[in-house]
Amino acid sequence: MDGLNYTRVTHFTFLGLTSNHSLELTLFVVFGFMYLLILVGNVLIMVTVASDRCLHTPMYFFLGNLSFIDICHSSVTAPKMISDFLSLRKTISFNGCMAQLFFLHLCACAEIFLLTIMAYDRYIAICHPLQYMSLMSLKVCTWLVGALWVGATVHSVVQTVLTVQLPYCGPNILDTFFCDVPPVIKLACTDTYFTGVLIVSNSGMISLVCFLALLVSYIIILVSLRGRTAEGRRKALSTCAAHLLVVALFLGPCIFIYTRPATSFSADKVVAVFYTVVTPMLNPVIYTLRNAEVKNSMKKLRDRKIFFMGT
Fold first, then answer.
1. How confident is the model over 102-143, as pLDDT tens digits?
2. Which contiguous run of DSSP H or E holds residue 35?
3. Model pTM?
4. Which UniProt keywords are given for this protein, alphabetically ordered (predicted)?
5. Which residue among 82, 136, 143, 225 is least enclosed by CB atoms within 10 Å?
6. Helix (H, G, I), strand (E, B) or coil at 276
7. Selection from 256, 101, 85 nearest residue 187 by Cα
8. Domains of the chain, start order
9. Is residue 112 within 8 Å of residue 251, measured between CB atoms?
């Protein structure tokens, strides 16, 4: 395309999840309700962790941050997707598309790094309990959260720059419901093989390496639990099981999408819905239903509010 004139694409059009208008109305209600649950559930966890001093520990500090990231992550794509169910033409400006792509990768990468840090936290708590308070002090936790946002920003900038510098002269139809790197670069008016390799190396390797690090840490934890009492094993496994379930629900789809070449599969849309909407909705349920401390703190918060209302 060097040296040739071309008309730059000014907007992209989504094909969305379906072309059936009746089904779109149903999906509008379903996903609208799911997004509301995401906001309510994750805000409730954040408020509970912040208001109860018993939960001012590294594990719950990270849990509160996970809820914040889940709200941000789902808000990048869900509101646009929900509003598009009521639109005949599902369009987004070029700049809006690049912004959505940037914040999508920022939040997704931040969540991957945070899940890895949470696994490290559990490893220290179970395998090195006497050193836990020194190794996972508030200062250390704050630095870790700051570092994950810096790392996520670098990753997202790389992804966005690799995408935005390509020439786009048409077509502008995206067979999806949000802007992501793989479907967008397929529309570029140039060979994107090298760019695709860089993107797979970046996103795919982050997902895969973090998943392997998580797997190794939990194998070590399981081995260390052999000498514990039955009650100690039960409590440790309960916490770890909730975290492992969240990891599987989030990292599984990420690995499926970002560790292969830019080819489309029929399951891509379903997988994308899963890690952008379903997982952020399920995370509060997973952590509250399996965690007695969080449930007790929520009951205390509820009773306190009822008391205030009656005074």
1. 999 999 999 999 999 988 898 888 888 888 888 999 899 999
2. helix 21-51
3. 0.87
4. Cell membrane, G-protein coupled receptor, Membrane, Olfaction, Receptor, Sensory transduction, Transducer, Transmembrane, Transmembrane helix
5. 143
6. helix
7. 101
8. 11-305 (1.20.1070.10)
9. yes
